[in-house]
Amino acid sequence: MTDHPTEPTTTDSEAEAVRWTTPPTDGGERLDGRSAALVSADRILTGRRGQVEGSLETIGIRTSSLSEVEVTQARTAGQGGAVLLRGRDILAVGTTAELEGHLAELLPDVDPNDVVRVDLPGTTLMPGLIETHDHLPTSGTDVEYPDYGPHEVARLTLNAARAARELLSEGVTSVQSLGARHYVDVALRDAVDAGDLRGPRIIASGPQITTTGGHAHHAGGAADSLDEIRRQVRHHHLMGADTIKAMATGGFMTDGSAPWFAQFTTEELRVLFDEAHRLGRWTAAHAHGTQGIERAVRAGVDYIAHASFVSAAGRSEFDPHLADEMARAGVYVDCTIVADLPGIIAADPTFAPPARQLWEHGVRIVAGHDAGIPASPQRAYVGGLQALDSVGLPRTEVLLAATSRAAVAIGRAGVTGVLAPGFEADLIAVAGDPSQDLAALHDLRLVVARGREFRPDRVEGLAASQAPTEAVGPSATLAEWRERSARAARHPEV
What we know:
The structure is a single chain. By secondary structure, the chain is α/β, with parallel strands linked by helices. The chain has helices at 12-17, 68-76, 96-101, 103-106, 152-169, 184-193, 226-239, 266-278, 290-299, 320-329, 341-347, 355-360, 381-390, 395-401, 404-409, 474-490; strands at 36-49, 56-60, 81-86, 89-95, 116-127, 129-134, 172-177, 201-203, 243-247, 282-287, 303-306, 332-334, 364-365, 427-431, 444-449, 452-453. Strands 1, 2, 3, 4, 5, 14, 15 and 16 form an 8-stranded mixed β-sheet that branches. It has a 5-stranded parallel β-sheet with strand order 9-10-11-12-13. A 3-stranded parallel β-sheet has the order 6-7-8. The termini are far apart. The model has no long low-confidence stretch (mean pLDDT 91). InterPro entries: Amidohydro-rel, Metal-dep_hydrolase_composite, Metal_Hydrolase, Metallo-dep_Hydrolase.
């Protein structure tokens, strides 16, 4: 895999000599991923922290201190924010006046008049959003492992391609796939990298490594001994996976799988993660229950999905000492805060995830939504960020969790997630200021992936669901175990 596929170049003299049967077109894209371009807006959120605690680094105009008239005057004076791109990369970030004044030295071989200019008044430029936990091939299905019969690989691939475009249409320019049968995500990653399909940068994992009959065993990654675990990791490496994911506990979506019980020993997980790291691969663990979280952290995992601390009693029982251990280990965590979660919590408060508590203990929270499983569609990404805000994570932290911190969490530090020289040109423009209101992220005005503009597809809206009147999904699993415990408690001593 490469983040920099070679682009063919054609000189002006060669272009003039070409006799076109079908001339090339730009498809309406203002940024082609090859030329120099200056993109300007009211302000830039760079993806870094600001100098004031709890703030974000902002370049340009701060709407909270200026009237609409003053904003217009400031933009006219070149005080808005701007990003200078060349091809796939960011060359400079600053105010519009600063970059316009230094074009000659920044682009010594380009006539300033030939620089493409895209001006977006009333908007904020920021890094492209990042989904750290996705299941691309099963997107839009009613069950996590649909049966497509003899056309399974083809249908899963088509699902994944559609999901990739839907993510990009929501402003998501990078995604970590954490479970895909037949390594469909690896193939899609390579097609996107080659420019054959449009989609976000894909970090692929292939099938999850689990136990026989364990959570997600349908994906085909079962291993029951240290040798089988090593073989699975090496096979994933051979097939081109970027991230090696282990199912450290059971899950809610697999019958007969208890989310609060660990599936692997600490030794087994250590062998798995050590082997993956030896091969230069990122590691992730699905872990709901405390025992599985603890084992994964002590085995050296990089990323944990869920970390819900769900106990056999059917509720989240936060462990502050384990949270401190997670923080010291530097593990990145997605608490799977999906758009519908506030309604679920309203109906069953015991299922509230400990995102705020983990953050208060110094754990690095990122934006992962288990997207692609039933009831968590790709188009609900921004709703998931708003839900993360609603469960107590400060808005500044939510934006970092969706951009710069998320980039590190998927193993792409220094590549994306920040608007700064040397990073790839993954950026979006939204109407308004998301640091003041996350709803601004719903109003996209520009999507740029690796320097090339993407015109979003039409995406159907998603109505907010009402709080369920009876247990559904994970809550149903919890309710079943609770009822079983209650019945056992009523039985007389004999």
